[in-house]
Design brief:
Layout (H helix, E strand, L loop, with lengths): L2 H10 L17 H30 L8 H14 L3 H17 L4 H16 L4 H4 L5 H21 L4 H13 L7 H16 L8 H4 L2 H17 L3 H14 L4 H10 L9
Helix pairs in contact: 1-11, 2-3, 2-13, 3-4, 3-5, 4-5, 5-7, 5-8, 7-8, 8-9, 8-11, 9-11, 11-12, 11-13, 12-13
């Protein structure tokens, strides 16, 4: 497998990063909200199974070798979607090692920044932390993660993977952090690149990949639901289903479209 194919493979499997337990938008009823959550949970489960299968193959005798970066990314995705702290700690360790040797590795910096946001999301005893000085540790993780994501974008501002990671993180941060609009702007830039890959020729192969495009379109649907724009959300899910009928994001998009009344009147 070429480096480009490996990069596309990992990009397709980037998580739906939800740091907040808040509702993603207006779904019309509790039943629809429950169905929405159920679909996202099923998607996460399907993806984490793929990560674990890939990791098993990688550590086996027939792995054929894997880069340190890709190994760290595998642990990251397992740790994030599976809320597996041991895997996330392993990912962080690998990312720190890589950045120690190559501090200008913008993608790995973005992964590490997202890892800090996940530490804030999964902070133990949140109900205590929010009313004690422990809460400052959570805020520290959020600030550090946001700073790393911004630095990564400055280092490689046309990298769709980095833009995607920052967009997904910031769109899903609680609104009081004031990052939604910037995260949504990243998403709009990604959608522009999908429509016009000639504007980002260095990553045209990634932007033309059906798996990557279906992931971006699915997450655009999620973001528009957070804006309570059901009409555009429905369109994005429809496009995601067309782009990736045979991948986890395409199948999840079809399930979203089947939720009764989710897009009522649109």
């Amino acid at each position: 497998m070429s480096d480009q194919e490996t990069k596309i493979g990992f990009a397709i499997l980037i998580l739906i990063f939800i740091i907040s337990a808040c509702s993603a938008g207006s779904y019309g009823s509790r039943g629809n909200q429950s169905m929405h959550d159920s679909i996202n949970t099923a998607l996460s489960t399907e993806l984490v199974e793929e990560y674990r299968a890939a990791l098993t193959q990688v550590v086996g005798q027939d792995s054929g070798g894997i880069s340190e970066e890709n190994l760290g990314q595998l642990y990251f995705h397992i740790g994030n979607l599976g809320k597996d702290k041991r895997s996330m700690l392993k990912a962080e360790e690998i990312f720190h090692q890589i950045l120690g040797k190559d501090p200008n590795n913008a993608e790995i910096l973005a992964y590490l920044g997202t890892a800090y946001l996940i530490k804030a999301r999964d902070f133990p005893m949140k109900w205590i932390a929010n009313v004690t000085p422990l809460g400052f540790y959570r805020l520290h993780y959020v600030q550090k993660g946001n700073d790393m994501l911004s630095a990564a974008v400055r280092m490689d501002d046309k990298n769709p993977i980095i833009r995607h990671m920052r967009s997904t993180a910031w769109v899903n941060l609680p609104r009081q952090f004031g990052k939604f609009d910037e995260g949504f702007a990243d998403l709009e830039l990604l959608l522009l690149w999908l429509d016009h890959p000639e504007l980002n020729r260095r990553f045209a192969g990634l932007l033309l990949d059906e798996g990557f495009s279906s992931m971006i379109l699915f997450q655009a649907g999620e973001a528009y639901l957070r804006k309570d724009d059901q009409k555009t959300a429905k369109y994005m899910y429809e496009q995601a289903a067309k782009a990736g009928a045979d991948n986890p994001y395409g199948r999840a998009a079809l399930r979203k479209l089947s939720v009764a009344d989710l897009f009522a009147g649109n």
